[in-house]
Specification:
Two copies of one chain form a homodimer. By secondary structure, the first copy, chain A, is an alpha/beta fold. Chain A contains eleven helices and eleven strands. In chain A, the strands form two sheets. Chain A has a six-stranded mixed β-sheet with strand order 3-2-1-4-11-10, sandwiched between helices. A five-stranded mixed β-sheet of chain A has the order 5-6-9-7-8, sandwiched between helices. In chain A, helix 3 crosses helix 5. Chains A and B meet through helix 8 and helix 9 of A and helix 8 and helix 9 of B.
Chain lengths: ~350, ~350
C-alpha cells in the first residue's frame, strides 16, 4: 500500500470556520488519494458540515477538540490553558507523529506559539520563521520572516535564507532561488546594524544564491525568490502589501462607478481584470509555512476560503514528499560543522 | 512692501532637470507674488530654459553653480568636494539666511547629508527626520522618518511625533493630527524593543494626540495623520508603497489590453480612473520636508515634474508663513524643561 500523507486541519480556525476548512479538506482528498486529513474541532459541528458536503469516503477522520481559541486571546495563555482546543490538539497530533503537518486559519499568535512550544524546533534551528508567499509580477516570492519573534540576530537571518532556499527549490520548483536581503539601498554599505552585519555572512554562505540587497520598491517586481528580513520588517511588508492592494482595488472600483460610461466600461474590463489579478493572489499557492519545526505547521489567512485550505493541504503533501525537513536538517548540520 | 519669501531651487537635480524645475519655479512665482525663487545651477543652461518659458519677470534670480552631484556619488564625499554644486550652493543660501528654504530633486543622500552638515540642526533637535506625505484613502499622512539615519532611539521618535504634529497642523491644516506608531499588532505589549520603549513615552507626551499602534495594513486607509517609525521601516513603507502601486497599475493596464472588449472597456473607464487615482498621488502636495533644520529643506521625487516643484515651493511658503521652525523650537524647549 502507498504511504499515506497525514494532514491535521483546524476546522474551527478563521473567519469562515467550520464550513470552509471542511470544504477545503473534502476537495483536497478528492484530488489526492494518498492524503488523509484529520479534521480537528467540535465533533458534532464538523460532522454536520461533512454531511453538507455529502462526504462519505474514508480519507477524513474527525478528531474531537471541544475548546476554541479566539483570535483576541493572549496566545501563550491560550495554548497553556486550552488543552482541548483545535490548535493544541492538532499540534499534538504532529508532535506525536500521528500527523505530518497541521494547517490552521486560527489566531496567528496561538499558531506561532503552539508551533514552538508544542511541535518544537528542529535541532540546530535557532528560530523558526513564518514564511508567507507574496505575489509578484513574475509569480511569488517567499518573505521570510514575518513571525512574532522580532529583534533577530544575523545568524537567524542566514538560517532563514538557507531554509527559504530549500523551500522555494523543492516545494515551489524554483531551480536556483535568488536570495536577497531587504535594505534601504542597493549598496553593501547601506542598511541598519542588523543588515550590515548579515550582508557579508549571506555573501559568504556557500549553499545559497545570494544576489544582494533588495529595496522594497523592487519586491513587487519579483526581483528575488527568497526575501530575507527580520520579522518586524517582514510583518510591515506583508501587511502593507495586503492593505495597499485592497485599498487600491476599492479606490479603482469606486472610480469605475462614477459615471454611466465608466460603469459600462467597468463591466467590459471586469473579466480580463479578474484574470490578471488572479495571478496576483498568493492564496493560489497555499498558506505560510512555519519552517524549522519537527513537523510542518501552515498558517493560512484568517479569511481563508476552501481553495486556500485545499492548496495548503496539497502544499503539506509536497513538503512531506520532498522531505524538506530532512534537507533542512542536513543543510544546517553541514553549516554548523563548517563554522 | 510685503515680506518676500525666498526659496532656492536646485535646477540641476532630478531626472527632468533643468526643464521641469525651471518650469515649476516659473509657475510658482506666477501663483504667488510674494515668493522669490533662486534657481541654482549652471547659469547658461538655466537662462536658456527661462527663455523657453518666456519668463521676463523679476521674481526669479539665477545663481550660478557649475558643478553637478550625480545620484550615484557617495553623498558625504560629494558634499565635501563639490562646493560649487547646486546642492551645496543652494544649501549655503539657506545657511546664510539669504533663502528661507531649498527644494531639490537631486541625490537623496546628498540632500540629507547637506541638510545636516551645511544647513545644520536646530538646537534641541536630536535628529532631523525626512517626512514624506503618502497618499491614503482619506487624503495624505506624514510618514516620519524615511531618512538615512537608521537605528533610531526612542527619544528621536518622540521628537518626530512632535515635529510631525506641528507640520500636519500648520502646513496641512489638520486640526488635531492623530499620531500612531508603526507596529506589528494593535496591543501596547506588541512590537520590537524600540517600539515597546517608545510607546509609553508617546502615550505620556502631553502635546500630541497619540492614538496608539498602527499596523501597516491600515496605513493606506488613512487611520493616522502622523505615522511614526524609524527610518529603515519608513523607507521600506515608502518604497513598497510606490513600487506596489506602480506594479499594480501596470498589471491592471496589461489586463485591460488582453481582448478587444477589455480594450474598449479600458478606454471608457480611463477618465474616471485617472480622476480617482489623482487623489492617490502625493505629489499634489509637494515634496518631503527634512524637519528640524535651521531652515527648510524639501526633497522632491527624483522624477518630479514641474507640478511637484511648484507645489514644493508653495509648501515652503506656507512653512515660512506658519513659522513652523519657531513652533518646533518652542515645543522642544518646553519638552526639555519638563523632563
Amino acid at each position: 500500500m502507498q504511504e499515506q500523507i497525514k494532514v491535521a486541519v483546524d476546522a474551527m480556525g478563521g473567519d469562515h470556520a467550520p464550513a470552509q476548512p471542511v470544504k477545503g479538506a473534502v476537495e483536497a482528498v478528492a484530488r489526492r488519494k494518498d492524503v488523509h486529513v484529520f479534521l480537528v474541532g467540535q465533533k458534532g459541528v464538523i460532522e454536520e458540515e461533512l454531511k453538507q458536503c455529502a462526504y462519505a469516503g474514508d480519507q477524513i477522520t474527525v478528531v474531537d477538540a471541544p475548546e476554541v481559541i479566539e483570535t483576541a486571546e493572549p496566545p501563550v495563555m491560550a495554548i497553556r490553558r486550552k488543552k482541548q482546543s483545535s490548535i493544541v490538539v492538532g499540534m499534538n497530533l504532529v508532535k506525536q507523529q500521528e500527523a505530518d503537518a497541521f494547517v490552521s486559519a486560527g489566531s496567528s499568535g496561538a499558531v506561532l506559539v503552539g508551533g514552538q512550544v508544542i511541535v518544537g524546533r528542529m535541532k540546530g534551528v535557532e528560530r523558526p520563521p513564518l514564511a508567507p508567499l507574496i505575489p509578484t509580477e513574475k509569480g511569488v516570492s517567499l518573505l521570510i520572516d514575518c513571525g512574532a519573534n522580532v529583534d533577530a540576530r544575523p545568524s537567524h537571518l542566514v538560517q532563514f535564507a538557507q531554509m527559504g532556499s530549500i523551500y522555494m527549490k523543492h516545494v515551489m520548483g524554483v531551480e536556483q532561488p535568488r536570495v536577497a536581503i531587504v535594505n534601504i539601498g542597493a549598496e553593501e554599505e547601506k542598511g541598519n546594524a542588523l543588515v550590515k552585519e548579515t550582508f557579508p555572512m549571506l555573501k559568504n554562505c556557500p549553499d545559497i544564491h545570494f544576489v544582494g540587497s533588495i529595496e522594497a520598491r523592487d519586491i513587487p517586481k519579483g526581483e528575488a525568490d527568497v526575501i530575507v528580513c527580520e520579522a518586524f520588517v517582514g510583518n510591515v511588508i506583508l501587511k502593507l502589501y495586503e492593505g495597499l492592494a485592497s485599498t487600491l482595488m476599492r479606490v479603482i472600483k469606486q472610480g469605475m462607478m462614477t459615471s454611466l460610461k465608466s460603469k459600462i466600461g467597468g463591466l467590459m474590463v471586469k473579466p480580463a481584470l479578474k484574470q490578471t489579478l488572479k495571478a496576483f493572489d498568493a492564496t493560489e499557492y497555499g498558506g505560510a509555512p512555519l519552517l524549522g519545526l519537527k513537523g510542518l505547521v501552515v498558517k493560512t489567512h484568517g479569511n481563508a476560503m476552501a481553495k486556500e485550505v485545499t492548496n495548503s493541504i496539497l502544499q503539506c503533501a509536497t513538503f512531506h514528499e520532498q522531505e524538506i525537513n530532512e534537507r533542512i536538517k542536513n543543510k544546517l548540520e553541514i553549516s554548523s560543522k563548517e563554522e
